[in-house]
Amino acid sequence: MGSPTKKVLIISYLFPPIGGSGSLRPLMLARHLPQHGWEPVVLTVKNPDWYYANDPELLDDLPPNVSIVRASMLRSTWFYRFLNPLRIKSIDKLIRIYLLHPDEQIGWLPFAHSKAVKIMQNHNISALYSTSGPLTSHLIALLLKRRFGIPWIAEFRDEWFEDPALPMPTTIHKRFHFHLEKLIVAEADKIVTLAPEFNMFLMKHAVPLDKFYTIPIGIEDDRLKVQLQKVSPKQFTVVYAGLIYDTFPPDRFLKAVNELIKEQKISAQEITIRFVGAITIKSVLDPFGIVECTGFMNRSKALEEEDNADLLLLLLSRERGNGVIPSKIFEYMASGNPILALVPPEGAVAEIIERTKTGNVVDFYNTGEIKQTFLTLYEHWKNGTLNLSPDWGEINKYRQTTLFKKIADMLDELEKDTLGQQTRN
Predict the structure, then answer these.
(1) Hey, is 126 helix, strand or coil?
(2) The overall pTM is greater than 0.85
(3) Which of 81, 107, 298, 325 fits a 20 to 30 Å CA distance from 305?
(4) Backbone phi, then psi, for 59, in 5-degree steps?
(5) CA-CA distances (angstroms) from residue 188 to 47, 57, 101, 146, 151?
(6) Domain count of the fold of the chain
């Protein structure tokens, strides 16, 4: 394939060296699009608010022709200091809930928009691609769409109006967010989400159904591994990678394991449960000292942890939503190791794991079933029979080369339509 001749402006607040799962989607997008004739120009933040993860090694994955432009922002901490000089925590909380909308990154908008206008003037940009969170990214794209009239794809990595964590304390706030969401969905040429349920949320705005696409982050092709039978080590190592949220803590899982130890059905000396990421576990949940918390690790080391695990733990409760598809499920699948998914049995994650045959699905709330399933997996490990027979045909449907080509095809279609309109005019 020849050198890319078409340029797309990717607007993403989260981008390396910021680490964590939120940066991976725009990073992979910038990595894959050049293979399909699109040269990315990435607009991201220069001085982000504090973020738990810093992983500059991720930038090594980018092709050399990807341009990165970083715009400054008025950090939310400055808003807090100006409006609440005594730094009373309860007042900070009120400022966040009542004033900083659509999110705390709204201070990025004027500076990012100014940089984006210069990019549009200095580069022959053919399309826009904004990705959230934060939601401010879409507002920047909306302003550019109205000014320059080029095609725009808006991507939602999470919910917006239905997000249970979104602060909407008054009817005015609810109307504000509903109106903004409707505006973005109406004016974007295409909508991409990472889970089918997110599309369902956005379809309430009565726009054409052919505007919506579901394209998960998928599996990096060079990460796909066929699991080999391991020599049984002395430790049965369970790994959870990523953040722990209040809506799906590991309490029930740890309680189930602790009960099995108390009942002498498993040995505490043979088990290690490693939480990889910015996590702390209450000591009361670890009476036998089987838990290890590594703190944040850069992605390459976190993937090594997943590859070396005997069992990978996935947590997701109904409060977070049956339709959520966390990116870690694809990393887990790529490792070739079995997954213990404590998730809604009727949800999207359960459906993927069952279809790909990559693990066991147990209801997040069913401690009894968690105990029995974990005991069975432990016994298989003891016997050297903890092996997968995954459906590789299904797994291959989630290869990133396949999924990101769909985005490139969408960009090609939009550019073709735009050129056709210009010719007719």
Answers:
(1) strand
(2) yes
(3) 325
(4) -65, -20
(5) 28, 33, 20, 10, 8
(6) 2
